C-alpha cells in the first residue's frame, strides 16, 4: 500500500512540473510541447525509459545511499519565446513553482485528514518540496541553472551552459557526498512545520 502511495505522490509531483514548463512556454510564444503531444497530464507521456525506470532500478540494486531519476523533459524551443533570455526564467521557474503550490495545498488538507489519506498527503508535501528544491539547484540541466542563465550576463550564461554535458555527473557526485540529505532535511523541516 505504501509503495502505491509513494508512486502516486511522485506522479502528482513530476507530471504537473513538466506540464507547467510547457504551459508557460506556450503562453510566452513557444508551442513546441503542444505540437509534440507533451502538453498533457498523462503520466505515460512523461516517462523516460532511462531516467524514470532504468537508473532508479539500478541505483536501488546497488549499494549506494540515494535514488536518482528524472522524467522526460518537456521540449522547449527558447528561440521561439518572445523574449528568450527573460522568458527562460519564467519557463524554468514554472516547474518548481507548481511543486510548491501542490505542497502548500496538500499541507492545508493534511490537517483535515487521518490514516492513509494523511500519510499520502504527507508524501505529496515531502516529494513536491524536495523536487522543487532539487530543481532549483543551479547546475545544468536543472531548472535553477536556466533561471540563473536568464539573470546572468550573456558571456557568463554561456560559460554556465558549457557545464551541461557534465551536469549529471556533478549531481551524482554531490548526491553521493550528502547533498541529497541536505535537501531532504529542508523538505522534512517544511513537512514538520505543517504536520
Verbal overview:
The chain has helices at residues 2-27, 32-35, 49-61, 84-110, 115-135, 143-151, 154-161, 167-176, 179-194. By secondary structure, it is mostly helical. It has one domain (2-194). Helix 1 (2-27) crosses helix 5 and helix 6 (143-151) runs antiparallel to helix 7. The radius of gyration is 17 Å and the shape is globular. The protein starts with a helix and ends with a helix.
Number of helices in the DSSP assignment? 9
Terminus-to-terminus distance: 21 Å
Structure classification? mainly alpha
Count of individual beta strands: 0
**Unreliably modeled segments:** none
Strand content: under 5%
Which sheet architecture does the biggest sheet show? Answer: none
SSE order: HHHHHHHHH
**Coarse shape:** globular
Number of domains: 1
Q: What is the helix content?
A: 55-70%
Gyration radius (Cα, Å) is 17 Å
Oligomer: single chain
Overall mean pLDDT stands at 87
Short description:
It is built from 9 helices and no strands.
Secondary structure layout:
Elements: H1 2-27, H2 32-35, H3 49-61, H4 84-110, H5 115-135, H6 143-151, H7 154-161, H8 167-176, H9 179-194
Search tags:
globular, mainly alpha, 195 residues
Amino acid at each position: 500500500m505504501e509503495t502505491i502511495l509513494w508512486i502516486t505522490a511522485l506522479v502528482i509531483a513530476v507530471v504537473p512540473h513538466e506540464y507547467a514548463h510547457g504551459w508557460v512556454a506556450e503562453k510566452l510564444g513557444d508551442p513546441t510541447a503542444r505540437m509534440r503531444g507533451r502538453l498533457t497530464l498523462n503520466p505515460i507521456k512523461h516517462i523516460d525509459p532511462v531516467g524514470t525506470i532504468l537508473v532508479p532500478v539500478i541505483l536501488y540494486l546497488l549499494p549506494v545511499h540515494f535514488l536518482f531519476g528524472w522524467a522526460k523533459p518537456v521540449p522547449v524551443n527558447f528561440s521561439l519565446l518572445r523574449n528568450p533570455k527573460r522568458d527562460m526564467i519564467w519557463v524554468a521557474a514554472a516547474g518548481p513553482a507548481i511543486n510548491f503550490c501542490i505542497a502548500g495545498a496538500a499541507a492545508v488538507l493534511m490537517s483535515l485528514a487521518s490514516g492513509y489519506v494523511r500519510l499520502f498527503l504527507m508524501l505529496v508535501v515531502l516529494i513536491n518540496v524536495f523536487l522543487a528544491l532539487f530543481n532549483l539547484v543551479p547546475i545544468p540541466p536543472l531548472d535553477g541553472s536556466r533561471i540563473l542563465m536568464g539573470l546572468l550576463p550573456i558571456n557568463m550564461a554561456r560559460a554556465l551552459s558549457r557545464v551541461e554535458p557534465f551536469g549529471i555527473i556533478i549531481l551524482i557526485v554531490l548526491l553521493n557526498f550528502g547533498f541529497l540529505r541536505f535537501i531532504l532535511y529542508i523538505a522534512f523541516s517544511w513537512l514538520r512545520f505543517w504536520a
